[in-house]
Automatic annotation (TrEMBL):
Record-level Gene Ontology MF annotations: glutathione transferase activity
Signal peptide extent: none
UniProt KW keywords: Transferase
Pfam family, one: GST_N_2
Matching Gene3D superfamilies: 1.20.1050.10, Glutaredoxin
GO cellular component: cytoplasm
Organism encoding this protein: Vibrio astriarenae
Binding-site list for glutathione: W90, R118, V119, T120, V121, E136, S137
Location of the GST C-terminal domain: 160-287
Lineage: Bacteria, Pseudomonadati, Pseudomonadota, Gammaproteobacteria, Vibrionales
Protein name according to UniProt: Glutathione S-transferase family protein
Length: 315
């Protein structure tokens, strides 16, 4: 694990000293936008963009789900990094197809020779201008949701105008408390920072559990972007976050509504195809040697994700 400083790779763990033991996630460095239309910097075109992902990473997982649900497989190709993220950061098991790079930081310095920042997935690369469009998953999924509609003919809308306020409110609540909340538990280096993160995480899960008892999805009867953003954390929770990140007050399996909701989303074939528990468990337990120095990867838990979700009667 490390970062680029002026284009040079340094193998360093997160610095939590400056923030009293709390993990603070760095803002993404590339914030371009793929759009429909002529004369724009990054125009939506079939075959022009390449997506670098980790199957372990919840942020990258969002982009893979949206790529499938929006029928973009034939239009945006993908490279998958190795689950093992060690002294060189994210690496490719076999070199990636565009440049034969073996490390993801080489893609970042191709885009910006003197880049300073963390080298994260997902990354959306533009083959035409030879740069990174974006390394911010929340923005990549918005682009996938609408920019390629006239190419794919797929109008499914996961960020509909009428629900945007509700979706934004859920996202703003779920990001700090749950998506990043599990990391704030796991990467905390003081007891207090861990406990603060733990309490806000489980308070948020309780709140969503009661909401989902009456509501089929977060924003009502329709699946939206907010659900996909929550889902990628939930599906990793019992397998990794309970043990490795000490998020162990309860499992998702102990929350009937959240568990049924998660299973319903998982059982969508396109979504199941993007979920890889080998990469998920291997990455966290093998890569975070500060947390798990033996690198032993647990065999369990046995997950029950294919049993009936029981959510049909909820509107
Ligand atoms: N804001 C980014 C965060 C992405 C992110 O932090 N990805 C993690 C993997 S789960 C990563 O690549 N971490 C490497 C590092 O921090 O050095 C997004 O949502 O796209």
């Amino acid at each position: 694990m490390g970062k680029l400083v002026q284009g040079v790779w340094h193998d360093v763990w997160y610095d939590t000293k400056a923030s009293g033991g709390s993990f603070v996630r760095e803002d993404a460095g590339f914030r371009g936008w793929v759009e429909e239309g002529e004369g724009v910097e990054f125009a939506a075109e079939s075959g022009r963009y390449h997506l670098y992902v980790s199957l372990a990473c919840p942020w990258a997982h969002r982009t893979l789900i949206m790529r499938q649900l929006k029928g973009l497989e034939a239009h945006i190709d993908v490279s998958i990094v190795s689950p093992d993220m060690l002294s060189e950061g994210w690496e490719f098991t076999e070199s990636e197809p565009l440049f034969g790079a073996t490390r993801l930081h080489q893609i970042y310095t191709r885009a910006k020779l003197d880049y300073t920042g963390r080298v994260t997935v997902p990354v959306l690369w533009d083959k035409k201008t030879q740069t990174i469009v974006s390394n911010e998953s929340s923005e990549i999924i918005r682009m996938f949701n609408s920019a390629f509609n006239s190419i794919t003919g797929n109008d499914n809308d996961y960020y509909p105008l009428s629900l945007r306020n509700t979706i934004d409110e859920w996202n703003d609540y779920i990001y700090p408390n749950i998506n990043n909340g599990v990391y704030r538990c796991g990467f905390a280096t003081t007891q207090q920072a861990y406990e603060d993160a733990y309490h806000s995480l489980f308070e948020a899960l309780e709140k969503i559990e009661s909401h989902l008892r009456r509501s089929r999805y977060l924003a009502g009867s329709q699946i939206t972007e907010a659900d996909w953003r929550l889902f990628t954390t939930l599906i990793r929770f019992d397998a990794v976050y309970v043990g490795h990140f000490k998020c162990n007050k309860k499992r998702i399996a102990d929350y009937p509504a959240l568990n049924g909701y998660m299973k319903e989303l998982y059982q969508i074939e396109d979504v199941k195809q993007t979920t890889d528990f080998y990469h998920i468990k291997r990455h966290y337990y093998y890569s975070h040697t500060g947390i798990n120095p033996t690198q032993v990867v647990p065999l369990g838990p046995q997950l029950d994700l294919d049993s009936p979700h029981g959510r049909e009667s909820i509107v």
